[in-house]
Amino acid sequence: MLLTSSQLFGQSSPIGKGTAFTGDLYHNGGYFGIGETAPQTKLHITADHNLNLDQFPIIRLENIYPKSEFENIWDIRNHENLYFDFGEPAPINTKMVLTKDGQLALGTETPHVSSILHLDATNKGLLIPKLTNVEMNAISTPANGLLIYNKDRDAFAFYESGSWHTITKTEDLDNYLTITDFNNTVVAGIENSGSPYKTALV
What's CA 165's distance to the chain center, in Å? Predict the structure, then answer.
């Protein structure tokens, strides 16, 4: 039978009751609250506002291997931004931050104000999707600026104005005549031959 009013679990001996935080459990018509007397979602957690939320997690996920006594801890905390911290078991280090402005940061707690995604590392890079020509051309309604790595061409490709364009490496241009080469050879040869067509490409 679903309850229509908030009721406290273990009222005679509340779970986690203390001076540091309120850990009382409530339920309201199938919604559960921790520290929240009127939960509005399936799980509604409210922390003590007297705490420094930059220091204390709201949720902790802990996994212990008894044989080796190896411990993995993920902490989730929020204070304007949402922080995901990890430790084995300590110290706890921030691995990811989702800011209140919608920025996602990996490897740093302070994404640049101009970024929507800020990646920071000294021993890793960004690996984007690798597609064949067939897979690339099968992308439905690609957006202008969409970037992939083309495995058939061994090069990056981006989509713009109805077609895919390959970002060519400098060394791949060795067998092609550049504008500078054209000016220095073809145009110069025309001028030296006395041809009336003396307009050089710039």
Answer: 26
**177: nearest Cα among 169, 185, 188:** 185
Q: Residue 29 and residue 6: Cα distance in Å, rounded? A: 8
For 127-175, the pLDDT digits (tens) are: 999 999 999 999 999 999 999 999 999 999 999 999 999 987 766 666 6
| Closest by Cα among 66, 60, 54, 64 to 16 | 60
Q: Is 12 exposed, middle or buried (0-12, 13-18, 19+ CB in 10 A)?
A: exposed
This prediction has a pTM of: 0.61
On whether the CB atoms of residues 99 and 106 are closer than 8 A, the answer is no
Q: If residue 180 lies in a helix (H) or strand (E), which one and from where to where?
A: helix 179-182
Measured in degrees and rounded to the nearest 5, phi and psi for residue 171 equal -65, -20
* Least confident segment among 12-26, 46-60, 151-165: 12-26
Question: Do the bridges between strand 7-9 and strand 25-28 make them parallel or antiparallel, or are there none, so unpaired?
Answer: antiparallel
